[in-house]
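Let us practice reading a record.
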Amino acid sequence: MRWGSLRALAVVFRERGVVALEELEVPEPGKGQVLVAVKYSLISPGTEVAFLHGLPNTPRRYPQRPGYSAVGEVVMVGEGVERVEVGDLVCAKCPHASLALASEQAVMRVPEGVDPLDAVFFELGAIALQAVRKARVEVGEPVLVLGAGLVGQLAAQLARVAGGVPVLVADLVPFRLKRALEFGADHAIDLSQVALREGLTRALGRADVPVVIEATGSPEAVASALEIAARRGRVVLLGSTRGTTVVNFYSTVHRKGLTVVGAHVSTLPSLDSLPGWWTERDEWGAFFRLLRYGRLKVGHLITDVVEPERAPEAYEWLARERDRHLGVIFKWE
């Protein structure tokens, strides 16, 4: 089938702090490519808000197209595509738009029975999964997750799946901590009310913890993660840090024998999974299995499903109203 010239609506960061919905031309899929009519796309709050406002460790180049987590129906396939076919419901690692052109490698069929609104969390699920996998959580071991944003919420659930006991979550926003306690966390530490060490002591009877997953992206939180990690503990840096962290490596890392692991998803192998280092596609598959068998829940993380025309509002919510908004999804149908 040949459709000729195709037009799509897309979210665009026109310049620093400016969000717009624009019409773009989309080419037909070439060799190894897939065209997806998007149903839903999920905002990745930490990354996209940081890129929008040009925070440290972001490109600061505009215009740019945000987003990397969508679900939709395959409407065209290019030459040589074998994994999916027209009519399939797929997840697609692509920007926010009504039509998405992606490589076959960047899409995966959504298993039967999985709600598309749950499936759209596939990429954030994979990001959290690879971080927890790198933490090497042992059954019965306490785990602390710093930050109760989307990836922190997912990491807390996955730490519990991995056998972490108890799982603690620390954040400044009570609304987010309540969600964490409802699904996965055993203890919540409200950092707007209590210092981190005091909160740990109340929950564990000790002021340190063997596994810390840092999911805030705050430079100060990275320093805190290193300080409260126990001797011979592990600290996994899941959040992308937006600034420079000042650390006394002798006292917080060297003398305690800490293992510190960077867990950016771009470090994953591209072809074959290894113990502790799965490919991104294998992590997607694991995410869907966890959903299907009820080990992972994401529906409670959705606070807003909005039309793309409300994109400027949506990013403002996530930047300014963290006590009300968490999982924001664009509905493109």
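A brief commentary: The domain at 6-121+298-331 is CATH 3.90.180.10 (Quinone Oxidoreductase; Chain A, domain 1).
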